[in-house]
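agent> step 3/5: call structure_predict on target 'Maternal effect embryo arrest 60' (Rehmannia glutinosa).
agent> reason: downstream docking stage needs a structural representation; sequence fetched in step 2, passing through unchanged.
tool.input:
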Amino acid sequence: MSATSIHITALDGIVNVNSLFTLAVFIGLAWNPTDPNNSLIDPTQLPGCSPGPKAAENLVTFHVYSFSCFLFSSLAALGLKQAIRLQAREAHHNHRMLWAFDLAHVNKTALRVGYAVSAVGSVCGSVFLMLALINVVQIKLGMLGCGGSRHGYGAVVPLVILVPCGLLIYVCTVFYAFTR
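tool.output (status=ok):
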């Protein structure tokens, strides 16, 4: 497999993952956090643990930020992919080769910058999606600072451990690819 094909495949992967996360954001935005039947909090058992309107505002805000970042990342990856294909088409016409797609000469600096920009968008989108999910937990199970929200902590702690670990692996992999 040539380097150009690998780059195209990597960019396709970025776009596909961002599309899945964007779908999650839209599902999150379709949910109505102010619906009184949508909460698992019993105000009589946990007085003062109900989230205020700020939690719902943060939920929507973080979803919009997340969507913006994933869209930015996907558009950057698609633009980079299109540039590679245009370069391959130019190589094909200049050299009259059938396999020119695999032999396209790509500016490595531009490719690295494009990957970095797309990766930053994906990482920021993931962080904002995690923050939105923390607000979902607070709306459904009660504020985290509240004494009776042990279920909330049980939902949030794995989220704030596993997502950053996954992002660290992703960033290290992108950095490794960036230096090669």
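agent> step 4/5: record observation. Helices lie at 3-30, 53-95, 108-141, 150-178.
agent> proceeding.
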